[in-house]
Amino acid sequence: MNSPIQSKATDKQRQILTIAQPIILGKGFSAVGLNEILKTAGVPKGSFYHYFESKEQFGCALVDHYFEQYLTNLDRLLSDTKLTATARLLTYFEQWKTTQCDDTSQDKCLVVKLSGEVTDLSEGMRLALKKGTQAVIDRLSLCLAEAAKENKLNLGNTKTVTEELYYLWIGATLMTKVHNHPQMLEVAMHALESKLNLHQH
Fold it and tell me: What's a single GO MF annotation on this record (predicted)?
């Protein structure tokens, strides 16, 4: 069992990570100084290294923290038996489209924000992103397999198809930022619906 001091530190780490997430989603990892994060979190400047060994280790913890929340929400959606598997998939990607097209930094995709920036700078953060995205793909793959049965589709290897769809959506999200227009995500949604043969219904 953790001592009270260790538990308190963990709570403070979570507080710092929660406050830092929207700041980094807005500005990027490299552009944000530790002082800005600590000031916003109400943490004394000198105490950062009490909670994190380095900015890189903080970055890895940030990615883990993000995926912990993300996967909790994803599991809640994908386990909703009131919806068909097809509806669960469509709801997930519709939420993705909506959150990436609004102006709320808190709901933006940290994978898109950090992938191009930190993967060459931090092996630890790259591996954390890889682990998190793989966990998302694994969950979506199970749901896609169920949806394929519902729609009597032969998709072949659903893991491969899920990877194709996920990578398409990541790329479309990036291009949405480039074009400042949701058209790319609409293309990705059309591809998903085609894969599920929904245009025939």
Answer: DNA binding
